[in-house]
Specification:
Elements (H helix, E strand, L loop, with lengths): L2 H19 L4 H15 L14 H19 L3 H5 L8 H16 L4 H19 L3 H15 L8 H14 L15 H17 L9 H11 L5 E5 L12 H6 L4 E8 L2 E4 L12 E6 L1 H11 L2 E3 L14 E8 L10 H4 L1 H5 L2 E7 L2 E3 L13 E7 H11 L1 E3 L14 H14 L5 H14 L5 H7 L2 H19 L2 H13 L4 H18 L2 H19 L3 H12 L10 H10 L6 H24 L2
């Protein structure tokens, strides 16, 4: 083993450990790996940032933008909203939800499709009397299955297609990579088998977690955690903003209403100045409320009966939302973010893995998958949720679709048609679609930048040269030789299953795009050792990398469902493992039929 190969293995192994550990975000780990690879000389300095100009990375960014424009347009709401009209039967409802999100995910970003369907799924489950835990995991897995069917369904497919073009010495999008629907014969068959399995058998394997339903219901009931305080005539806090009261409780309360001269104002701004005779309704844990009352010397009002309806109105809403991976909230506290003064909203409660949290809420560090209860004026609360990176668990009133709502869908369809017919490269087609969407003001420029998942783009741009270093140093050949020595006597279908399994295991602990970058050259090298068609092995990587069903950290979709569903870490494999077996059992023979030697 050469010094360069040792360096390549060391960087990759260290990256895998850090990816799995999760202490640092995957884009930071990828950038660190790239910098070290340049320093040790396995990535030439002049090629260090070539990954950011790679057509595959540009395509991923464009797909993310177009997906957000479709989600925003409202054109797809009619499809998702019609599920509520189906019979209240578990199999029918879960099957319809899973199939719908899979179809959407074939052409949209997985999380974007999930964001559209999450409120629909919760509403449908409640109407049909289905436990939320039985509906949300199938929804997450359906979004992953749908991505198997098309080139743009998931970033690993784009990476695999780009690498195929590189192997053939052609450019991505001009006959070198896989076409838009070349993933469909294998991917769609595997996805359909997975959806049928989930609908008929799989959802029954999910543990029935009442905690998820109870937490969502309990989160909305804040009346037991609200106390009314009256400002006395001689209070030194008269004339000071209500934020001063929050500070006295160390940031662990929220002022949900202020009553002045008989008029009640809900979710008052932090700068509202207190006056003698004001009645402040504060929400928080027992200790925080006691601290606010004691430190302020305000009078405690005990002769009023409070109800949940007292803290919301047509203008001021209380909304449940889930914290998205990569959200501005993740790893930070409400107190540190100054949510009320910066965004004009209150965070009243948090639920984590089915358990509500109300004590010391200002000091709780948010985690991806947490469910939060937010109060604020209607005109700002949804903008705040979007800025903070949270997905609401209930839809706003769905606007009636008009002709303009379908323009983004038509532009997207035209871009796909142009790419499929070979009129223009796929990356150019999608970037042109983005330009048209923004240029015609169908999609705001500011939202265009917000809709790109920059950590994914940084990961791909930084890790592509590192993955290329595996091949240039000969490390890929060593790995493939090791796989061949262990499993070389197996039949071809079994070798494909081995590649899918390795890819799936990696995707269970690291980002699936990183899995595709690492496994693509290894798969081609194994195929060459077997004198087999490397297309089958590349497709096997694509299937395995997107089959991240075993853990909640395997994909954003899984993590997003953890809080609303009340799931525990070990719940995912109960459905994920047999679903992986079913997916691979269908994919392996289809790979031989479609892409065999």
């Amino acid at each position: 083993m050469t010094t360069e190969q040792i360096a390549a293995f060391g960087i990759i192994l260290a990256s895998l450990v850090l990816f799995a550990w999760g202490r640092w975000r995957y884009d930071i780990v990828a950038m660190a790996a790239l910098v070290i690879a340049v320093i040790v000389g396995i990535v030439p300095a002049e090629e260090a940032f070539d990954g950011f100009s790679d057509a595959a990375v540009v395509t991923v960014a464009a797909v993310l933008i177009i997906s957000q424009s479709l989600q925003r347009s409202g054109a797809i709401n009619a499809l998702s909203g019609s599920i509520g009209k189906l019979p209240a039967n578990s199999m029918i409802q879960i099957g319809a939800l899973t199939l719908t999100v899979a179809v959407l995910s074939a052409f949209m970003n997985n999380v974007g499709a999930l964001a559209l369907m999450l409120p629909v799924a919760i509403r449908a489950a409640q109407a049909a009397g289905i436990p939320t835990s039985r509906a949300l995991m199938p929804l997450a897995f359906g979004s992953l299955l749908g991505g198997l069917a098309t080139l743009i369904g998931t970033p690993p497919n784009i990476i695999i297609s780009s690498y195929r073009a590189e192997v053939l010495g052609k450019s991505f999008g001009e006959g070198g990579g896989f076409g838009m629907f070349e993933f469909a014969p294998v991917g769609a068959a595997a996805a359909l088998a997975g959806i049928v399995f989930i609908t008929v058998i799989g959802y029954r394997l999910i543990p029935h977690r009442d905690s998820g339903d109870n937490a969502l219901e309990e989160l909305l009931h804040i009346e037991d955690y609200v106390t009314e305080l009256a400002v006395p005539e001689d209070s030194p806090l008269i004339g000071k903003p209500i934020r001063e009261l929050v500070v006295l409780a160390d940031g662990d309360i929220s002022v949900v209403a202020i009553i002045r001269d008989g008029n009640k104002e809900l979710a008052p701004p932090w700068y509202t100045r207190m006056q003698a005779g004001d009645h402040l309704m504060i929400e928080g844990g027992t200790d925080a409320i006691a601290a606010a009352a004691d430190n302020s010397q305000f009078d405690l009002v005990t002769d009023k009966e409070l109800h949940d309806a007292d803290f919301a109105s047509d203008e001021v809403l209380m909304v449940e939302a889930v914290v998205n991976p990569g959200s501005r909230l993740e790893g930070r506290t409400p107190r540190g973010l100054r949510v009320n003064s910066r965004y004009g909203v209150n965070i009243l409660a948090i639920a984590r893995q089915g358990k509500p949290i109300r004590d010391r809420i200002g000091h709780i560090r948010f985690e991806a998958g947490d469910v939060i209860l937010m109060q604020g004026p209607e005109q700002v609360i949804y903008e705040a949720l979007n800025s903070l990176g949270c997905l609401p668990l209930a839809n706003r009133e769905i606007a009636l679709a008009n002709r303009r709502s379908f323009y983004p869908l038509a532009i997207f369809a035209a871009a796909i048609a142009a790419a499929v017919l070979g009129l223009v490269r796929i990356d150019i087609a999608f970037v042109a679609a983005v330009v048209i969407l923004v240029g015609t003001r169908l999609f705001p420029l500011r939202e265009m930048y917000d809709s790109v998942e920059w950590p994914i783009i940084i990961l791909l741009g930084a890790f592509l040269p590192v993955g290329a270093a595996l091949q240039s140093t000969g490390a890929t050949t060593l790995i493939s030789n090791g796989i061949f020595d262990i499993a070389g006597d197996m039949p071809l279908w079994a070798m494909l299953v081995v590649i899918m399994t390795i890819s799936a295991v990696l995707s269970a602990v690291i980002n699936n795009a990183a899995t595709a970058v690492l496994m693509a050259p290894i798969a081609v090298s194994v195929a060459d050792s077997l004198n087999a068609n490397f297309d089958a092995f590349l497709m096997a990587v694509a299937i395995g990398a997107s089959s991240a069903f075993l853990t909640p950290i395997g994909h954003q979709s899984n993590l997003l469902m953890m809080g609303p569903g009340g799931y525990r870490f070990g719940d995912y494999w109960r459905l994920g493992l047999p679903l992986t077996v079913v997916t691979f059992a269908v994919a392996a023979p289809m790979l031989l039929i479609i892409w065999g030697p």
